[in-house]
Amino acid sequence: MAQSKQQAIIWQSVRSHDLDRYLATLFAPAHARDPLMALYAFNIDVSRIPGAVSEPMLGEVRLQWWRDALEVLEKGDVTGNPVADALGKAIHDFNLPKPLLQGVIDARAFDLSGEAMPDGQALKAYLQKTQGALFTLAARIVTGEKPDRALEAIAQQAGFAWGLTDMLRMLPVHLSRGRFYLPVSHFRDCDADPNVLLSGTADEMAQKALLGLQGEAREALGQTCASLPAHARKTGVAFLPCALVPPYLSVLEKQAGTPLERVAEINPLRRLSFLTWGALRGRLG
Predict the structure, then answer these.
(1) How far apart are CA 25 and CA 146, in angstroms?
(2) CA-to-CA distance for 254 and 15, rounded, in angstroms?
(3) Which of 26, 61, 159, 285 would be a feasible disulfide site paired with 132, CB 3.0-4.6 Å?
(4) Please, what are the domains in the chain?
(5) Contacts of 181 (CB under 8 A, 6+ apart)
């Protein structure tokens, strides 16, 4: 069936800005693909706001637009924005809870603040509202059911594993923009100075701190994999992006001596093979 113009815009947005989730969604059941793409396009739009504005106040205005849009969509009305209106259809078709979507928006106020991530607790809360919420919503779309508490806990673990890995691999980009999303307290506990990274270098202690965070991401993925089998038949594909955590962490480990030179990437064919393996075997690591 041919895509509508709205669907084409949304799919292209996800393909251009979140290729991992785009490819993972191709393995989802047919009924879930368009709403998943709408969810991810919404996340892309919101997450790109801080980098697209010259002043925090302008970013707040755009975030408020999305908060207001959720109110409109909840009533069954349309906004004229293709991403928002596709999200509105997903909200109604799958009864997506507005608080989770609003949390995704509200979390980006931190991005606008320009502040560094103070500690692990703040990092966990940030990733719960962003990546954890996306996995929870994706599971709801794939199954058509409200996730139980066990599945919500799995989604939070997956969100931490995926989100922290993404922060580590995107570190050169974030630092080039003067942003530091990794917990400052962790570096201080490792006797490392975060300002060393902001200056564009990574001494031995900073590298040790980064390796510790990679270990936390790997541990969170392990907990996700251990908990998921009971839900894997129905929901496994919702967590499929996490199948890419191990290869990304492997690349980061190989870049240990030069963590700030380039974004950690994996070969496109290797990326697809990990996703295919995860989809066929229901295994993420």
Answers:
(1) 20
(2) 27
(3) 159
(4) 1-114 (no CATH), 117-285 (1.10.600.10)
(5) 116, 117, 123, 126, 167, 174
